[in-house]
Structure formats: structure tokens, C-alpha cells
Q: What sequence folds into this?
């Protein structure tokens, strides 16, 4: 592993453990046994280091997403594959979950998460609306579906320490993750089934009250 990769690996660990705000370049340098000046040489500053850590994760995640969505298959099948791919990725990269959630929920660099995630959501919304016109608006609007499914997967890991006692083991454990993927796939299937059914007539307030 070259010096740049060594620094990235150390930053990944430190950011994941204490968060970006609490981390220092000195701590990162000491944890991997390099001169602090090398961090500034390769990444300029701590912010540049965070961007590099995120880029590395998102490049790998992008490859997983492309694999799940590629090939000849229905959008339904691709979405089910995507659930598995995303859950597996997060299960194997728990520090990524912690880094992203800290920044997205009030960190100084939420824009770095937004700039990477919004285009993915926009592509997903366009694909859903094209395949399921009923998702253009209403209670099952594509943006709500995507965010809901995203939350079903992400919170499984970000709340891992909280829900582990309920489950009896860590959410990322193989048995628990397998069960979670089955559950989310089932939810996705139900939502897509609902989009394929004709919408029921909307009842007025008077009809409901009567």
C-alpha cells in the first residue's frame, strides 16, 4: 500500500470512529505512522482528505449500483437486485455509514453527500416514472418511494447499536442482514404491485363522513 492509500485508510478509520469535526490531521498521521506534512502534500487539508475518502467509497458504490442495474432485466428485477447490492455494501462498510450520516445530519460538509446522492435519486425517479407512470405524483410518488426504501436500508446500519438488543445480534451479522434484505425486497415488491394496480376512486370528505 503506497503512502496515499495508507493515509486514506487511516482517515477512513478515524473519521468513522470520532467524526470529521473531532478528527485532526495530526491524529490521522500518527495512526498510520506518516509525517503530517504528507497529508497536506497529497490532500492539501482535512477537507480534501474527507472528499478523497468519500470519493473512494462512492466510486465503489457506483460500481455496485451499475452492476445491479445492468443487463437485460425488468426494472422490478433490477430494483430488487439493487436492494441487495446496497445493503451488502453498507454491511461491509459500516464506517461509510457513520461518516455519511454525521455529515448529512448537520455536518459542515453535507454538500459533499448531497452532490453525490441527488443525481442518483434523480436518475432513479426518472426510471420509476418512465416504467410506472402512477409514480409521477400522489402518495406513491417516485421520490417518496426512493427515499423510503433508502431509509429502510440505511437506518438498519446507522441505528445498529440501538436495535441490536432487539434483534439479539448485530444488524450486520449475516443472519440478520439476510432477513433484512428479504424484508426490504418484500416491501419493494408490494410498492411496485400497488403502482401497477388501477388507482381506487378518491372519496370526498362528505362520502367518508356519511
A:
Amino acid at each position: 500500500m503506497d503512502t496515499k492509500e495508507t493515509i486514506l485508510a487511516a482517515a477512513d478509520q478515524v473519521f468513522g470512529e470520532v467524526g470529521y469535526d473531532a478528527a485532526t490531521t495530526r491524529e490521522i498521521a500518527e495512526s498510520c505512522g506518516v509525517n503530517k506534512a504528507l497529508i497536506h502534500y497529497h490532500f492539501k487539508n482535512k477537507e480534501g482528505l474527507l472528499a478523497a475518502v468519500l470519493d473512494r467509497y462512492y466510486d465503489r458504490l457506483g460500481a455496485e449500483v451499475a452492476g445491479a442495474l445492468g443487463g437485460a432485466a425488468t426494472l422490478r428485477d433490477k430494483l430488487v437486485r439493487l436492494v441487495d447490492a446496497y445493503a451488502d455494501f453498507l454491511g461491509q462498510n459500516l464506517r461509510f455509514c457513520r461518516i455519511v450520516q454525521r455529515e448529512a445530519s448537520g455536518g459542515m460538509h453535507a454538500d459533499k453527500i448531497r452532490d453525490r446522492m441527488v443525481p442518483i435519486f434523480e436518475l432513479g425517479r426518472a426510471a420509476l416514472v418512465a416504467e410506472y407512470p402512477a409514480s409521477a405524483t400522489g402518495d406513491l410518488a417516485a421520490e417518496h418511494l426512493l427515499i423510503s426504501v433508502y431509509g429502510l436500508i440505511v437506518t438498519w446500519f446507522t441505528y445498529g447499536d440501538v436495535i441490536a438488543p432487539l434483534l439479539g445480534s448485530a444488524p450486520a451479522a449475516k443472519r440478520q442482514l439476510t432477513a433484512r434484505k428479504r424484508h426490504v425486497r418484500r416491501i419493494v415488491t408490494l410498492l411496485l404491485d400497488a403502482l401497477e394496480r388501477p388507482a381506487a376512486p378518491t372519496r370526498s370528505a362528505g362520502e367518508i363522513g356519511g
Observations:
- The radius of gyration is 21 Å.
- The chain has two domains: 1-44, 56-198.
- The CA atoms of residues 138 and 144 lie 9 Å apart.
- The chain has a mean pLDDT of 91.
